[in-house]
Write a structure and sequence with these properties.
By secondary structure, this protein is α+β, with helices and mostly antiparallel strands. Helices cover 22% and strands 13% of the residues.
Length: 203
């Protein structure tokens, strides 16, 4: 996922300059702004089920009827077994909603290294990833969540490579994931590699 959505009160200053806005949606008590999205498509509601990029999306993490068991089954499909969890967590066909920010923050909170493969993780670990991602997204849009967060979650690793970890003070590292042009940051102490796991790629 590329680009980011911000929600503001009417008249509130935007965190990015207006030139970076790609779409602005305004109602009487809120302004939703998309920044930096390379492509935005507007569809009639009746066309949504037929639009391939949307029709293939996995369960929406913000949906009240979200089914974690369905998402676990999607992670366990054989095609995902050898993918790194840092790649798989952002696959919108598995679950819809996790972008680059919440990939970082979910894996840090779960103490899982982004280069561990899906097959290496047991079901409890994958469920923890699913639940944490959902709760972080709910908190980010100010909805009830099981993390007891009432505001946008603190950023522990996103955009902090080279800085000390807030938890253990180890210097955060970064590298590129196989399927992403962006860097992934993590704490080598809080999110260790498995014993014998290969050296990380492209520092």
């Amino acid at each position: 996922m590329y680009g980011t959505w911000h929600v503001y009160q009417p008249g509130e200053a935007w965190r990015f300059p207006e030139r970076d806005a790609r779409l602005v949606l305004q109602v009487h008590d809120a302004v939703a702004v998309n920044f930096h999205a390379p492509v935005i498509e507007l569809l009639e509601e009746r066309a949504v089920p037929l639009h391939r990029p949307i029709a293939t999306l996995g369960p929406d993490l913000l949906d009240e009827a979200f089914d974690a068991d369905d998402v676990l089954r999607r992670f366990r499909q054989p095609a995902h077994a050898n993918r790194t969890i840092g790649d798989a967590i952002m696959d919108q066909r598995i679950m819809a909603g996790v972008g680059n920010i919440w990939k970082h923050e979910t894996l840090f909170r779960c103490r899982i290294n982004p280069w561990r493969t899906v097959a290496e993780l047991d079901d409890d670990s994958v469920r923890a990833i699913i639940d944490t991602a959902r709760n972080l997204l709910l908190a980010s849009v100010h909805r009830p969540n099981n993390l007891n967060l009432t505001h946008r979650p603190k950023m522990f690793v996103y955009m902090r490579a080279g800085q000390p970890c807030f938890r253990c003070h180890t210097r955060l590292r970064r590298a590129r994931q196989a399927e992403d042009i962006r860097f992934t940051a993590w704490c080598p102490e809080c999110q260790p590699l498995q014993e014998g796991q290969a050296v990380l790629p492209r520092q």
